[in-house]
Amino acid sequence: MSEQVTGAKSLVMSLERAGVDVMFGIPGGAILPAYDPIFDSSIRHILVRHEQGAGHAATGYAQATGRVGVCIATSGPGATNLVTPLADAHMDSVPIVAITGQVPSAAIGTDAFQEADIRGVTMPVTKHNYLITDPADIPEAIAEAFYIAGTGRPGPVLVDIAKDALQKMTTFAWPKQRALAGYRLQLDAENEAIRDAARLIAESKKPVLYVGGGIIKSNATKELFALAELTGAPVVTTLMARGAFPDSHPLHLGMPGMHGTVAAVTALQKADLLITLGARFDDRVTGKLSTFAVNAKVIHADIDPAEIGKNRFADVALIGDLKRNIIALIPALKDEFAKEKPDLSPWWKQVGGLRQTYPLGYDHPTDGLSPQYVIERIGAISGPDSIYCAGVGQHQMWASQFIKYENPRTWLNSGGLGTMGYAVPAAMGAKVGMPDTTVWAIDGDGCFQMTNQELVTCAINKIPIKVAIINNESLGMVRQWQTLFYSSRYSNTDLHSKRIPDFVKLADAMGCVGLRCESKEDVDGTIKEAMSINDAPVVIDFGVHRDAMVWPMVAAGTSNDEIMIAREMAPDWGSQEL
Amino acid sequence: MAIHTLSVLVENSPGVLARVAALFSRRGYNIDSLAVGPTEDPKISRMTIVLNLEGHALDQVSAQLFKLINVIGIQEMRADESYERELLLVKVAKKDANLSSVVATYGAQIVDDGETPIIEAVAESDQLEALLKDLSSYKVIELVQSGVIALEKGKMTLSDRVRLETGLSNPEDPNSADALTADYQN
């Protein structure tokens, strides 16, 4: 007979047993019983300043390490503050587990103090969720939550536990077997599909490897590298896949999509075959769907069967784990190539020419600092072994364009949901998971003001992240759209954040080192100064030119064929056969 | 657009109906009818969902449904290979000597023979529509109708199919894949 423990103790034992080393959270009434055994646990608990920070920190931790991130909050507002990070992790397929307290089971449904139906609220934004009212169910729910979050297409799982279930006595028993009849993973594609895919690749004259975030989640970057070199096909990496394939590699055309390179966007448009690996034909990549890559056949490799044919018909579906299926595809492809290997040199002449003619670039304004230059220098000085987190907006796009990524899990951002305020807490989580790695948050002044309170958490808990505020005193991406599509009528995008708040003083007040840089000459020196400080978080306020825009751009809802390299400037297609 | 009937086996757990309903609402799928009830296994409920869909949408709906952890198995009930029924209860304002023969034409019966009789009919949708048309002269004052329920004809059951298609064998068999699964640590 096992020892009698409280449900709360059983919860903490379950988390320990699931291998949790750190969790981010804030206590409150309903979750309070759990915080007593947490006090004695080997699990490090980091007390954040807002539950949203806990959620994004769990996400940053998970994206940087590949492990399941954990956050914990109380009922009602504590739980609802987790909704945005849960939705964020759901869109970007990040494995996190959220534990929330719930009002006592007898009070559920009575509109009790701090009651919110968080299971109901989070149903559409989690991979799965639980409401536990019996302490005996805690170990199984925790075990299942970690298993579901971390396997298949990863995603967030919420476990809501009624306060009385935490207080009552129970016995801890870690389940030996999965009882998930409805959760079945298909890991290997059918042999016939592998052969069909190999045949399509061998027949293709204009293939493109369209690489999404799934490659990183499946830890398949080595396999992707081998496949790319075997095919010799151009590679494009989506916003979620930056770092999945080295930017320095000659087969790499960069990022596709709304702010992708001309070469990457055009290669997809003109391809005769898209070898789609863990990508989901997001509207930010495809532009107007009906005009996307109209002549291309599609091989779609994904672990989620529901992605196949969701937005774009797949001629061949490779359902399963990418790593395993690329490993299976390579010998099949070698067999095909042994018969005949297509000559891709005309295709390379076309896309290689575009890459050469339309590299990513930017201007140095005469009256201010170029934000792209700042970001480019951070990447160059801190190097490809650092981790870079971004918020959402112009600075995010520039960070994806002008930092050169060579390694997976070094670029963390909110791709699907586009959550402003993601960067600081995600960087905190990444730094906790990867303490020996330099972690930068490249943030906008708008984003930074949404979640900067977690710098207090960083300062107190010795989590020395580095934050570069790309301060253009405005909601820059919205302002860019207002410039382009609303006759420069800047309705409510001016943040006046040149001096209010004073980010240097704010950093200082939060126990961080605050630096300011407003001229090109000082950029390198300021970055190096930040690099030299490793015992406290550093915040650099880079005052940048506010009219810089992100280019190239495919306007929302238009065709990728209408890509612009600058305002009212389409690429000169010339005599290119397109 | 075409009508499809899906039979869905789900775990008999709280919230499962809400999950299915939320999925349909979020993805913009229109449900024509939905019936939920127990099965031969007390741990499993069965939903019969009738949908009006375009083209390839059925595969997409099935794939999205199957992503719900509580959904165990899905099978389309094709009209020629399955047996579909709906239950109709209808109250009419008056009666006459002819009513019982009208009702009998459809295999229905008068279950409450009061001043405002209640008629019970079990049939396929178009039969029920025809019955209602014939009853219009009696003035329908209240009507309730169940969703479609359906069973595949022949020896094969949906549970059998779930086991076959997924390679999951009978959990009671000690040599089954289920009994041999590793623990939760992946």
In short:
Chain A has 578 residues and is an alpha/beta fold. Chain A folds into three domains: 4-171, Rossmann fold (3-Layer(aba) Sandwich); 191-357, TPP-binding domain (Rossmann fold, 3-Layer(aba) Sandwich), CATH 3.40.50.1220; 371-543, Thiamin diphosphate (ThDP)-binding fold, Pyr/PP domains (Rossmann fold), CATH 3.40.50.
Explain how this protein is built.
The complex is a heterodimer of chains A (about 575) and B (about 190). Chain A contains 23 helices and 20 strands. With about 575 residues, chain A is α/β, with parallel strands linked by helices. Chain A folds into 3 domains: about 5-170, Rossmann fold; about 190-355, Rossmann fold; about 370-545, Rossmann fold (3-Layer(aba) Sandwich), CATH 3.40.50.970. In chain A, helix 23 links the parallel strand 19 (about 515) and strand 20. In chain A, helix 1 (about 5-15) packs parallel to helix 7 (about 140-150), helix 12 (about 260-270) runs antiparallel to helix 15 and helix 16 (about 370-380) crosses helix 17 (about 395-400). The longest helix of chain A is centred in the middle third of the chain and has 18 residues, at about 320-340. Chain A is globular and about 75 Å long. The mean pLDDT of chain A is about 95. Chain B is an alpha+beta fold and about 190 residues long. Chain B has 2 domains: about 1-75, Alpha-Beta Plaits (2-Layer Sandwich); about 80-145, 2-Layer Sandwich (Alpha-Beta Plaits), CATH 3.30.70.1150. Helices cover about 25% and strands about 35% of the residues of chain B. In chain B, strands 5, 6, 7, 8 and 9 form a 5-stranded antiparallel sheet that branches. The radius of gyration of chain B is 20 Å and the shape is elongated. Mean pLDDT of chain B is about 85; it is low at about 170-185. Chains A and B meet through helix 7 of A and helix 1 and helix 2 of B.
